[in-house]
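Tokens as discussed.
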């Protein structure tokens, strides 16, 4: 009988090694291309996270931008402090916000943390 948990753990390990190999290979492309690829990856990752639903709810219920920023900082753990920039909210990362890196499934390197490295 196949142990489903064991099979899934092996697949996660294989996926992590595969992603590490792909990301390490990106060092061979120019910085702007790496940034665009990693930004696309970050957006895809965020779409799978419940944080987007929280942001949508905050956007619909906050009475003003100050309240929205305060709630985002309280309700969404990320890589830095959220602040208002014009009509939007953004965070400047001071540490890696990637759950794959934090869980040690993926090795942290200059490509994964390109925003931190590029300043």
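Sequence:
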């Amino acid at each position: 009988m196949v142990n489903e948990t064991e099979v899934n753990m092996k697949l996660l390990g294989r996926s992590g090694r595969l992603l590490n190999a792909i990301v390490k290979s990106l060092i061979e492309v120019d910085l702007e291309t790496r940034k665009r690829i990693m930004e696309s990856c970050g957006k895809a990752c965020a779409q799978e996270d419940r944080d987007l639903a929280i942001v949508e709810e905050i956007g619909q219920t906050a009475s003003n931008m100050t309240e929205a920023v305060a709630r985002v900082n309280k309700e969404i753990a990320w890589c830095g402090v959220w602040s208002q920039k014009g009509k939007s909210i953004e965070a400047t990362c001071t540490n890696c916000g990637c759950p794959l890196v934090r869980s040690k499934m993926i090795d942290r390197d200059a490509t994964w943390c390109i925003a931190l490295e590029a300043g």
